[in-house]
Give the backbone structure.
Amino acid sequence: MVTRRRVGPDVTALAEQVAALERHVGSVIEGKPAIVRLALVALLAEGHLLLEDVPGVGKTLLAKAIGRAIACSVRRVQFTPDLLPSDVTGVTVYNQEHGDFEFKPGAVFANIVLGDEINRAGPKTQSALLEAMEERTVTVDGTTHELAVPFMVIATQNPIELEGTYPLPEAQRDRFLMRLSIGYPSADAELEVLEVHGRGDRIGQLEPVTDAQQVAHLIETVKDVHAAAALRRYVIALVRATREHPDVELGASPRASLALLRAARAEAAVAGRDYVVPDDVKQLVRPVLSHRLILTPEAQMAERTAATVLDDLLGRIPIPVPDRGGQ
């Protein structure tokens, strides 16, 4: 165990505010509290979220509910084969009235950007998001434009075997902090869906419980959550082990190490702690790392998955022991 430190008032306030967001978003996403919590953890970790599942299970509904629960700018982009990169990033046009060129921002200029069915657009359009997702900037015609804070891309995609879809480039998958699969609801939850959503649009009735400025403050609070050196070494050991596993052709990158640590800090803060424990890391390994691994053809033929590889590593990598002084 890592040495425990006193919970600060900021973390306590953060946990209460996130709990209110969870209740608010959960009121329209029946039976999926763990998915809602992980989505909010990704937001606080300054990460982007990839929701991958079959059509009709609530991927877009979850993204829209998060946007409605926060008083901030939200833009939706329906990715289609004919969508252009300039539709996403923006374009410079000539203004005849003023006699000069001016920049017309694209859909990416918002606090929360919902990319619906992102894998229905071609690779060139998908790649238009790379700079925005990593650097929080957009460069058009040599001019760099800053994006809003907070900035989060929530993308939905259908399984790649469905007709009319394109695989996401590896570089773009690596920029998503987490990949989540919502899955089918239980029978009771599906019955609740019929009762609640069958009477009207619950999303339209949601009122914001926080705003962009407050979310930006929560993000800064998460950055101050303590992660001991032993825990940081544990993160490195897990990520490096993916590169050496015999079933893995391409392991997780150093960006994945940063993503796992940021997510663990956010998870600790949401739990009301200002320190990270090993369980924070362990429960985030699958959603943070699985989409970053490419398995060998032999492993795929044997029907092994990234999840089984990560479970194997979690069973073999020893739990960290705190350094002296809990540093």
Summary: The first helix runs from residue 9 to 26. The longest strand covers residues 90-95.
